[in-house]
């Protein structure tokens, strides 16, 4: 492993702390770090989704206690995303196809992360007409859920910018919505991934990565209670986006170069 398990655990802890402070799980960055560590591509989604679940459970509870989760508006987004995430996780794809899909997904995730501050700062008197259409929430939920299940990304990094773009709600409620979305879709995608790899076979190598799960648990707790003051949030997003884009370009270069 390029980083070593201890170094990778430290990076996971920092990632979890940063993402949990804004309601995200960090799946895209876990995937990026795991890809750099040259792990078996089949186990990348399983580890990343487990880490997502560990981190966003605390964030979701925090948002629920603060009554920021609007379940009446969230359920249409989850309606198709949950079965779609399961189906995406269950889908069997070869190594090259997975890495190409992962690379392209990370490109999109990195660009959306860079653009999110722009979406967040947009001012509008009312929500966009797009977000009021009956098909809007199920469609974006299903599409993001399916992609998330396949590559092991919770999907919040795709969902949040779209919600900001359409003025779906204020920033705190969008963060709460993204947190719930990541939690349920990570769980659904994980079930699909484990069914695909078979529970018994998947359990053996996963247990050896327990330091990563402990690291994100600790980091998630830190992030849930203490928002990071080391860097402004927009700089955290930019640096994370650059890392994701670097890994994406490296993966795609190795596939097409």
TrEMBL record:
Coiled coil: none annotated. It comes from the Bacteria. Signal peptide: none annotated. It is a multi-pass membrane protein. Pfam families: TauE. Keywords: Cell membrane, Membrane, Transmembrane, Transmembrane helix. It is found in: Cell membrane; Membrane. The chain crosses the membrane at residues 44-63, 75-93, 99-119, 140-162, 174-195, 207-228, 234-253. Belongs to the 4-toluene sulfonate uptake permease (TSUP) (TC 2.A.102) family. This is Probable membrane transporter protein. It comes from Parasphingorhabdus cellanae.
């Amino acid at each position: 492993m390029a980083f070593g398990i201890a170094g990778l655990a430290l990076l996971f802890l920092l990632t979890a702390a940063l993402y949990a402070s804004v309601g995200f799980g960090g799946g895209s960055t876990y995937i990026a770090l795991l890809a750099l560590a040259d792990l078996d591509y089949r186990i990348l989604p399983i580890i990343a989704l487990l880490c997502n679940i560990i981190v966003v459970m605390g964030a979701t509870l925090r948002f629920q206690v603060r009554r920021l989760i609007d379940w009446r508006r969230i359920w249409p987004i989850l309606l198709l995303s949950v079965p779609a995430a399961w189906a995406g996780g269950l889908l069997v794809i070869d190594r090259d196809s997975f890495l190409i899909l992962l690379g392209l997904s990370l490109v999109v995730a990195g660009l959306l992360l860079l653009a999110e501050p722009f979406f967040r700062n947009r001012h509008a008197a009312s929500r966009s007409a797009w977000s009021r259409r009956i098909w809007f929430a199920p469609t974006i939920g299903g599409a993001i859920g399916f992609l998330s299940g396949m590559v092991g990304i919770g999907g919040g990094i795709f969902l949040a910018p779209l919600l900001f773009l359409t003025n779906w709600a204020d920033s705190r409620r969008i963060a709460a919505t993204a947190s719930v979305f990541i939690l349920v879709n990570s769980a659904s995608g994980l079930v699909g991934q484990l069914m695909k790899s078979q529970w018994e076979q998947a359990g053996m190598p996963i247990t050896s990565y327990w330091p990563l799960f402990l690291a994100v648990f600790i980091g998630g707790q830190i992030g849930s209670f203490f928002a990071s003051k080391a860097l402004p949030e927009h700089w955290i997003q930019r640096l994370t986006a650059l890392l994701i884009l670097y890994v994406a370009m490296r993966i795609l270069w190795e596939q097409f170069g």
